[in-house]
Hints:
The chain is an alpha/beta fold. The protein contains nine helices and 14 strands. The chain has helices at residues 16-29, 51-62, 111-119, 132-137, 154-157, 177-188, 200-207, 261-266, 273-276, and strands at residues 2-10, 33-39, 42-50, 73-77, 85-89, 107-109, 125-128, 138-140, 169-172, 194-197, 213-218, 225-227, 245-247, 256-258. The protein has a five-stranded mixed sheet with strand order 4-1-3-2-5. It has a four-stranded parallel sheet with strand order 6-10-9-7. A hairpin with a 2-residue loop joins β2 and β3. It is globular.
Amino acid sequence: MFKVITFYKYVELEHLRYWMHKFRWVCSELNLFGRVLVAEEGVNGAICGKIENVEEFKRKIKESEIFSDLTFREMNSRGQVYHKLTVKTRGEIVVFGEKVDLNMKGLHISPEKLKTMLDKKEKIVLLDARDAHECKIGKFKNALTLSIENFKEFSKAANNLEPYKKEKIVMYCTGGIRCEKSSAFLKKNGFENVYQLKGGILNFIDKFPNTYFEGGCFVFDDRLTASSGKPITICEHCSKKSDRYFNCHNLDCDRLFVCCDYCNEKNNYCCSDECKNSERQRMVSI
């Protein structure tokens, strides 16, 4: 069995090249694949490997005092979900595009607390901080979503949230990292009652699967989707229920599309007949 873990921590880091080489060395030593971004504002990573190696990675990284309190979102996997290891330095560990004061971030709400609030039907606005294609295949029931293509568009899209300025807002994203910045941005702009789901969707569905999160959760690895319950989207070929995303194998297209496994193989892993018959096709790994 393999395990996939994601982690992040906003913390002032010095000597970025040291930390870049540190993460790369530990991952390489343990035969772990994935991606780790290091910046002056902290670290953001997602890796996969055999369970015992992932556990050793966690132990080694937490030996460093600055990461001794690092937390992880974890999912078991039947195999490796990354095809290589990438460790880089960046200007931001998640690109927001403008400065925010993280001391203003929304208070964390545990999955247990959110479930209790939803069970009691408390009046809250569940706000999805993710991109539109992520929300398409899965989201919390009755959640408010934004029509953004990437996280840099959040600040502009927040103009549409003015009607909810006095409401109690609970934000969520895949693992929590985007809510740290976006909740701080909202509070800076007069949204006083802002909270964020601790550990994001992955933490919630790990503890409470098949409850309030509907469909699949988009993930940033070769799986593209982590199934969590009944699909809310349909296959673009046959219209049967599916929550699986695929990249079109026409190299000149490469768009994400929802498809069932049967139609995906039948259509040569392509989104249309035109793409199916194109000459430039991605190789299928066996």
